[in-house]
Write a structure and sequence with these properties.
Layout (H helix, E strand, L loop, with lengths): L9 E4 L7 E12 L4 E8 L2 E2 L16 E6 L5 E5 L8 E2 L10 E4 L6 E3 L3 H9 L4 E9 L4 E8 L3 E4 L4 E12 L12 E8 L4 E14 L2 E16 L1 E7 L1
Antiparallel strand pairs: 1-2, 1-8, 2-3, 2-11, 3-5, 4-5, 5-6, 6-7, 9-17, 10-11, 10-17, 12-13, 13-14, 14-15, 15-16
Length: 238
Protein backbone atom coordinates (compact mmCIF):
# COMPACT_ATOMS: atom_id res chain seq x y z
CA UNK A 1 0.00 0.00 0.00
CA UNK A 2 1.18 3.53 -0.71
CA UNK A 3 2.03 5.52 2.43
CA UNK A 4 -0.03 8.49 3.49
CA UNK A 5 1.53 11.85 4.33
CA UNK A 6 1.66 11.90 8.11
CA UNK A 7 2.33 15.62 8.34
CA UNK A 8 -0.85 16.48 6.44
CA UNK A 9 -3.39 13.76 7.33
CA UNK A 10 -6.22 14.30 9.80
CA UNK A 11 -9.51 12.79 10.98
CA UNK A 12 -12.35 15.10 12.01
CA UNK A 13 -15.53 14.44 13.96
CA UNK A 14 -18.96 15.20 12.51
CA UNK A 15 -20.60 16.39 15.74
CA UNK A 16 -21.46 20.11 15.25
CA UNK A 17 -21.03 20.69 19.00
CA UNK A 18 -17.38 19.62 18.73
CA UNK A 19 -15.92 19.20 15.25
CA UNK A 20 -12.69 17.91 16.74
CA UNK A 21 -9.70 17.33 14.47
CA UNK A 22 -7.06 14.69 15.24
CA UNK A 23 -3.63 14.31 13.68
CA UNK A 24 -3.07 10.79 12.28
CA UNK A 25 0.04 9.15 13.76
CA UNK A 26 -0.12 5.57 12.45
CA UNK A 27 -2.22 3.23 10.34
CA UNK A 28 -2.92 -0.49 10.70
CA UNK A 29 -4.25 -2.45 7.75
CA UNK A 30 -5.64 -5.90 8.56
CA UNK A 31 -6.17 -8.33 5.66
CA UNK A 32 -8.12 -11.55 6.06
CA UNK A 33 -7.00 -13.66 3.13
CA UNK A 34 -9.71 -16.27 3.69
CA UNK A 35 -12.60 -13.82 3.43
CA UNK A 36 -10.95 -11.06 1.37
CA UNK A 37 -11.89 -8.47 4.00
CA UNK A 38 -9.58 -5.50 4.56
CA UNK A 39 -9.88 -3.11 7.51
CA UNK A 40 -7.94 0.09 8.18
CA UNK A 41 -7.41 1.52 11.68
CA UNK A 42 -5.96 4.98 12.33
CA UNK A 43 -4.24 5.89 15.59
CA UNK A 44 -4.35 9.61 16.29
CA UNK A 45 -2.26 11.91 18.45
CA UNK A 46 -2.61 11.75 22.22
CA UNK A 47 -4.13 14.61 24.21
CA UNK A 48 -5.21 15.17 27.83
CA UNK A 49 -8.58 14.84 29.54
CA UNK A 50 -10.32 18.19 29.17
CA UNK A 51 -13.58 19.96 29.89
CA UNK A 52 -14.17 21.09 26.32
CA UNK A 53 -15.30 24.72 25.86
CA UNK A 54 -15.59 25.34 29.61
CA UNK A 55 -15.16 28.96 30.78
CA UNK A 56 -12.20 27.98 33.00
CA UNK A 57 -10.32 25.04 34.54
CA UNK A 58 -10.01 23.24 31.21
CA UNK A 59 -8.08 20.18 32.43
CA UNK A 60 -9.74 17.60 34.68
CA UNK A 61 -7.97 17.23 38.04
CA UNK A 62 -7.89 13.42 37.83
CA UNK A 63 -6.23 13.69 34.45
CA UNK A 64 -5.27 11.03 31.93
CA UNK A 65 -3.70 10.55 28.52
CA UNK A 66 -6.36 10.20 25.82
CA UNK A 67 -5.53 8.33 22.59
CA UNK A 68 -8.25 7.68 19.98
CA UNK A 69 -8.20 5.03 17.24
CA UNK A 70 -10.73 5.00 14.40
CA UNK A 71 -11.82 1.92 12.46
CA UNK A 72 -14.52 0.98 9.96
CA UNK A 73 -17.02 -0.33 12.52
CA UNK A 74 -15.42 0.01 15.94
CA UNK A 75 -12.83 2.37 17.31
CA UNK A 76 -10.67 2.35 20.42
CA UNK A 77 -10.13 4.93 23.16
CA UNK A 78 -7.14 4.51 25.45
CA UNK A 79 -7.38 6.40 28.76
CA UNK A 80 -4.16 6.12 30.72
CA UNK A 81 -4.19 7.42 34.29
CA UNK A 82 -1.39 7.49 36.85
CA UNK A 83 -2.77 4.26 38.28
CA UNK A 84 -4.27 1.07 36.82
CA UNK A 85 -7.68 2.38 35.80
CA UNK A 86 -10.27 -0.25 34.73
CA UNK A 87 -11.47 1.70 31.65
CA UNK A 88 -8.00 1.93 30.11
CA UNK A 89 -9.26 0.52 26.80
CA UNK A 90 -12.81 0.90 25.49
CA UNK A 91 -14.11 -0.03 22.01
CA UNK A 92 -17.11 2.11 21.02
CA UNK A 93 -18.80 2.02 17.66
CA UNK A 94 -17.04 4.39 15.29
CA UNK A 95 -20.36 6.11 14.51
CA UNK A 96 -20.67 7.03 18.21
CA UNK A 97 -17.26 8.75 18.31
CA UNK A 98 -17.87 12.47 17.73
CA UNK A 99 -20.83 11.72 15.46
CA UNK A 100 -18.78 9.74 12.94
CA UNK A 101 -15.60 10.69 11.08
CA UNK A 102 -14.39 12.61 8.08
CA UNK A 103 -11.11 11.16 6.82
CA UNK A 104 -8.81 13.86 5.48
CA UNK A 105 -5.90 11.72 4.33
CA UNK A 106 -3.27 12.89 1.87
CA UNK A 107 -0.68 10.98 -0.11
CA UNK A 108 2.84 12.37 -0.52
CA UNK A 109 3.75 13.96 -3.85
CA UNK A 110 7.06 12.06 -3.76
CA UNK A 111 7.46 8.53 -2.44
CA UNK A 112 10.49 6.29 -2.95
CA UNK A 113 11.11 2.83 -1.53
CA UNK A 114 14.58 2.75 0.04
CA UNK A 115 16.07 -0.56 -1.07
CA UNK A 116 19.45 -0.57 0.70
CA UNK A 117 21.09 0.51 3.93
CA UNK A 118 23.01 3.12 1.92
CA UNK A 119 19.75 4.60 0.64
CA UNK A 120 18.34 4.68 4.16
CA UNK A 121 21.42 6.38 5.59
CA UNK A 122 21.56 8.97 2.83
CA UNK A 123 17.87 9.85 3.19
CA UNK A 124 18.34 10.19 6.93
CA UNK A 125 21.35 12.50 6.54
CA UNK A 126 19.45 14.56 3.95
CA UNK A 127 16.63 15.16 6.46
CA UNK A 128 14.03 13.56 4.22
CA UNK A 129 10.86 12.42 6.07
CA UNK A 130 10.71 8.63 6.40
CA UNK A 131 7.68 6.34 6.64
CA UNK A 132 7.97 2.68 7.62
CA UNK A 133 5.74 -0.30 6.98
CA UNK A 134 6.08 -3.39 9.15
CA UNK A 135 4.14 -6.41 7.92
CA UNK A 136 3.23 -9.43 10.06
CA UNK A 137 1.66 -12.62 8.72
CA UNK A 138 0.06 -15.75 10.14
CA UNK A 139 -0.26 -18.18 7.23
CA UNK A 140 -2.16 -20.75 9.31
CA UNK A 141 -5.19 -18.51 9.85
CA UNK A 142 -4.61 -16.31 6.79
CA UNK A 143 -4.29 -12.99 8.62
CA UNK A 144 -1.92 -10.23 7.56
CA UNK A 145 -1.32 -6.96 9.40
CA UNK A 146 0.57 -3.99 7.96
CA UNK A 147 1.61 -1.27 10.40
CA UNK A 148 2.51 2.06 8.83
CA UNK A 149 4.02 4.96 10.73
CA UNK A 150 6.34 7.95 10.39
CA UNK A 151 9.85 7.29 11.66
CA UNK A 152 10.36 9.78 14.50
CA UNK A 153 13.73 8.45 15.66
CA UNK A 154 16.35 6.92 13.34
CA UNK A 155 19.81 5.74 14.43
CA UNK A 156 22.62 5.66 11.85
CA UNK A 157 26.11 4.11 11.94
CA UNK A 158 27.94 5.06 8.72
CA UNK A 159 31.05 3.01 9.50
CA UNK A 160 29.03 -0.20 9.89
CA UNK A 161 26.50 0.79 7.19
CA UNK A 162 23.67 0.25 9.68
CA UNK A 163 20.44 1.93 10.68
CA UNK A 164 17.92 1.33 13.44
CA UNK A 165 14.34 2.55 13.64
CA UNK A 166 12.96 3.25 17.12
CA UNK A 167 9.56 4.90 17.12
CA UNK A 168 5.96 4.82 18.27
CA UNK A 169 3.41 4.42 19.50
CA UNK A 170 1.98 2.25 16.71
CA UNK A 171 -0.97 -0.13 16.49
CA UNK A 172 0.16 -3.73 16.98
CA UNK A 173 -2.25 -6.57 16.24
CA UNK A 174 -1.99 -9.97 17.87
CA UNK A 175 -2.18 -12.46 14.99
CA UNK A 176 -1.94 -15.58 17.15
CA UNK A 177 -5.67 -16.29 16.78
CA UNK A 178 -8.78 -14.96 15.11
CA UNK A 179 -10.84 -12.47 17.11
CA UNK A 180 -14.51 -11.75 16.49
CA UNK A 181 -13.65 -8.02 16.62
CA UNK A 182 -10.32 -6.79 15.31
CA UNK A 183 -10.17 -4.03 17.94
CA UNK A 184 -9.91 -6.62 20.71
CA UNK A 185 -6.57 -7.81 19.30
CA UNK A 186 -4.98 -4.34 18.97
CA UNK A 187 -2.47 -2.88 21.44
CA UNK A 188 -0.26 0.18 21.59
CA UNK A 189 3.45 -0.52 21.16
CA UNK A 190 6.79 0.97 20.19
CA UNK A 191 8.71 -0.71 17.37
CA UNK A 192 12.41 -1.12 16.62
CA UNK A 193 14.17 -2.82 13.71
CA UNK A 194 17.53 -2.69 11.91
CA UNK A 195 16.95 -5.38 9.28
CA UNK A 196 14.21 -6.20 6.76
CA UNK A 197 13.10 -9.51 8.29
CA UNK A 198 12.21 -8.95 11.97
CA UNK A 199 10.84 -6.32 14.32
CA UNK A 200 10.96 -5.93 18.08
CA UNK A 201 8.06 -4.43 20.01
CA UNK A 202 7.55 -3.15 23.53
CA UNK A 203 3.84 -3.28 24.34
CA UNK A 204 1.86 -1.17 26.77
CA UNK A 205 0.45 -3.40 29.50
CA UNK A 206 -0.17 -3.56 33.27
CA UNK A 207 3.26 -3.29 34.90
CA UNK A 208 4.00 -3.76 38.61
CA UNK A 209 5.75 -1.11 40.67
CA UNK A 210 7.82 -2.66 43.43
CA UNK A 211 8.79 -1.31 46.83
CA UNK A 212 11.63 -3.56 47.77
CA UNK A 213 10.28 -7.10 47.59
CA UNK A 214 6.65 -5.98 47.73
CA UNK A 215 4.50 -4.92 44.77
CA UNK A 216 3.31 -1.44 45.66
CA UNK A 217 1.01 -0.82 42.71
CA UNK A 218 0.52 -1.32 38.98
CA UNK A 219 0.46 1.15 36.09
CA UNK A 220 0.10 0.95 32.33
CA UNK A 221 3.60 1.10 30.91
CA UNK A 222 5.47 -0.08 27.79
CA UNK A 223 7.04 -3.21 29.27
CA UNK A 224 5.93 -6.26 27.25
CA UNK A 225 8.83 -7.11 24.91
CA UNK A 226 8.34 -9.42 21.93
CA UNK A 227 10.36 -10.11 18.77
CA UNK A 228 8.49 -11.20 15.63
CA UNK A 229 9.34 -12.23 12.08
CA UNK A 230 8.33 -9.32 9.87
CA UNK A 231 8.79 -7.65 6.53
CA UNK A 232 10.00 -4.08 6.96
CA UNK A 233 9.92 -1.38 4.29
CA UNK A 234 11.18 2.20 4.49
CA UNK A 235 10.03 5.03 2.21
CA UNK A 236 11.37 8.52 1.66
CA UNK A 237 8.44 10.91 1.24
CA UNK A 238 7.93 14.60 0.47
Amino acid sequence: MKPIHYGLSFISGCNPENSVRFWVESRLRVIDEKTGRTEDYYQCGSCKAEDTFAPSDLFYSDNYDFTPVFGPQYGIVYRRKAYLNPNYKTCPKASDMWGGQLYKLKEPEYCKLLESNEDIRHATHDAVPLVAQTELYNAEIGLRAIMEYPVKTMNIHDGKNMYQVDTGPVLLMDLSANCERTVDAISLAYVAFNAPDFADFVIEQPTPLSDGDQMASQVYHYSGIVSLPATNRLFAVK
